Every structure is written in C-alpha cells, then in structure tokens.
Amino acid sequence: QVQLVESGGGSVQVGDSLRVSCAASGRSFSTNAMGWFRQAPGKEREFVAAAGWSGETTYYADFAKGRFTISRERAKNAVVLQMNNLKPEDTAVYYCAGTGECSGSYYCPVYEYKYWGQGTQVTVSS
Q1: 3-class SS string, the chain
Q2: Contact 1, 26 (CB under 8 A)
Q3: Distance between CA atoms of 75 and 40, rounded to whole angstroms?
Q4: Is residue 22 a contact partner of residue 95, using CB atoms and an 8 Å limit?
Q5: Dihedrals φ, ψ of 87, to 5°?
Q6: Which among 3, 12, 23, 47 is placed 20 to 30 Å from 82, CA to CA?
C-alpha cells in the first residue's frame, strides 16, 4: 500500500518560514514527479510546486515563486517544501502528491498525480 505522509505544518506569524515534508512508502518515486498542492477553506485545491524525478526540474505556481522552494530527498523517497515570507493567504491544508508515470521532465497535469497524502495544516496569522 502506497502511503504519503506529510509533516511539519503548524501555525506561524506573517513573514515566518515553515518547512513541510512528505515521506513516501510502499512505492519508489525515484522516477516520478512529486508535488505539493493546497486547499484553503471554501476554495478548490490548487497547485503549489512540483519537482521532477531528479529534483533538477521544478515548477511553481506564480504565488510560490520567490518564496517557496521544493526539493527532493531521493534517498528518503521524500519531498520537501520550504516556505518563506508566509502570508495569511497561504493558510491552507497542504497535500503532498506523487505521479503514477509522469517523470516531471515536463509539467505534469493534476490528473497524473495518482497518490496523495492526507494533508497538513498551515495557518499564517497576522
């Protein structure tokens, strides 16, 4: 059984940093893209960032560029999202996801993400 488990969420103040991690088990994602999505209350889930199989290719939503950094820890079958200069609008549940086949050499559409974590809450207060 494939499991993705997020950790590192929490409550912070505006301008703070937070690092969320996702550890996968039951399947290797060494040749697959992994990414982060988020869902705020009353809103649809949206793409945050993704990294290709090697970690060298990365993709970011416009709101994440310059503030968030995604990285792969391939030896640990994990992906990390470093979030800096957090804003109240970053408040959401953050989900880790892994693709079934898409390597991440090109941008992977949402439907390519077959495996999802349960999410971790990030709350940014002003």
Answers
A1: CCEEEEECCEEEECCCCEEEEEEEECCCCCCCCEEEEEECCCCCCEEEEEECCCCCCEEECCCCCCCEEEEEEHHHCEEEEEECCCCHHHCEEEEEEEECCCCCCCCCCHHHEEEECCCEEEEEEC
A2: yes
A3: 31
A4: no
A5: -120, 160
A6: 3
Structure tokens at 81: 């999202």
Q: What pLDDT score does 76 carry? A: 87
Q: What is the pLDDT of residues 3-22, one digit of tens each?
A: 999 999 999 999 999 999 99
What does the buried/exposed string (b/e) look like for 10-23 if buried means 16 or more CB atoms within 10 Å of the residue's CB? eebeeeeebebbbb
